[in-house]
Amino acid sequence: MSKNRVRARIRRHPMQPVEFDRQGVARFKPNAIIRFLLKQGLFDLNRIADMSFPDEDRAQLAQLIGYSVGGFADLSYVSPRLARQAQGRADRLPAIATASSPESAAETSAGDPA
Question: ∠ CA 107-95-99 to the nearest 5 degrees?
Answer without folding.
Answer: 35
